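1st attempt posting a full record on here, be nice pls
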Amino acid sequence: MATLKINGKKIIAPEGATILEAARKHEMQIPTLCSNEALKPYGACRLCIVEVSKNGRTTIETSCTYPAEEGIEVKTDSVRVMEGRKLIVELYLARCPNVKIIRELAEEYGVKESAPQMGKDNDYCILCGLCVRACNEVVKAGAIQFAGSGINKIVDSPFHKTAEDCIACGSCAFICPTGIIKKNDLPATSVCTPESCTSTGAQREILNWQVEHKLKVCTKCGNPYAPEPHLQKITRQYNFLPEFFNICASCRQYPVVDEEKCLGCGGCMENCPIGALELEDRGGYDKKAHVFTENCTACHTCEDYCPTRAIS
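the predicted structure (as tokens):
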């Protein structure tokens, strides 16, 4: 634990916490565009800068990467900090003048226009790196990376070709603060030739990475709900049974055993297609059916074979 001051208020932060985490825990707002709880701190957007005083020396630091150390004093809204943030917003406004979140920040910090010497672009990517980090750190697909350097730096798939490692999970589109990554779920698609058209079913496309993948269709409700490569990756990662994703999350209702009605006959166990039920021996003739939800695919075959309707 570390004791520090933020805006004159004495707070206690857990070991390993950053200034940003400590401030948020005590409901002190610090703006940021590149921070996410699921990802390691990166410090790319620079909006979260704060003034840190330590051992008689004051510096400007990014709060998402600076540790909440014992005895430091932090100011989140000093004159230096506010001027620094204003300049950063001005730079973003020069790069991405039509991005909604940038225009909102510009209005908040009183920036009407960027300085002429900053130039004018019409980009929508702020190079925060959230999509790249989510793809590599969380999804672990490694389908996209930064390419180029300096003013030519972009987020791209390898060689600007189809991202072969992309599983179309949509994490990049979900986490992008500007909305530049386009994910579309198409209910029906076809491949057409001069001779005929062949239906290819529901698909998800990620336009930025030139990817299209078929969507898995729920056998219960009939709705497409997730890209097949994504489900295959999860199946391998967590050693799920192949049938586990035949049913979507909305339709998945695991069977529940009413022990008062259960006779312990074993009919459910014998007819379960994937062996997700067992009889729990409680001594003597007292046996009750038990469902292992980690293996259960929620097909409810057991319910059909229970003579006493103890499973529902």
